[in-house]
Amino acid sequence: WRHINTFIDYAAFKKNKLTIQKLFTTSYNPLEMYNRSLGDGSLDLLKVKSISDKTTHLYKILLYDFNKNITEILIPIIISKNFNETLPIKTNDSFLTVEKDREKNMKGKWFNVIFKKNSFYQTTSLEVIERKESIKINSDTIPLLKTFDIEYKLGDNEIKQLYISRFKNDKFDFLGNKFENGFLKASAKTLGSFFIKKDNSPPVVEFLNIQDLAWHSNIKKIKIKGYDNETGIKSYSAWINEKWILLEYDIKNNLFFYDFSDRVNTKNITNNLKVEIIDNVGNTTAKEITFYRKLDND
Question: Which pTM was predicted?
């Protein structure tokens, strides 16, 4: 499905959430739904007859639905005398050229960026702006075929709780925090702006339907709320009277459930419940509660 990005105007979709179908195809488009014997669909204005300034030509689009109903769209085109003038492309040292069939390793002052071979559909120029704790790699207007790697030179920085994030939709999304050979590393699926962040906040654990030192003989499930607002939950565990219990995780609603039908404790009315949640940089929250429940030995 990722090749559908060659069927639409990817930049318009990412910038404005508009799905605009291209009326032409390209040599790098691998989709097989085109009748390529008809050509690539592009309009060569140099081949238009009777070119003259201010002359209006009509470009016709015919849209067919499944029942062969037709909608006709007429687009007026006025061709000026200098329409085929080539404008110079402005580039500077901040632009990085990535050849389609070669690996590209950019070594910066603070960051390294590695693109694998055939990461893009064609040779691509990217604007790269590097700062001490952030790097902007173009914007998410060019589709990628493969993930690329970002490395941050730690130097004297303490690695504990550091991670690489992507800034998107006014928030920072956790990408990774692998440490190797003096670098903090992560992989990204899209271009954009990336930042070095530090997560000092541990996860939150809340017991929703049980209270400490109370009797809970009539509930069928324990309900627990658990979440981490910054880097997200990496792992979770729970025990009753030091016996591991299975938690059902509703990731959409940040809820955990334990079903008493699992019958972990059948010998003691006292239940000591401990829940531990670890986020993606190692911050840990452990919370305990003791409650009572009639024995169910049926």
Answer: 0.86
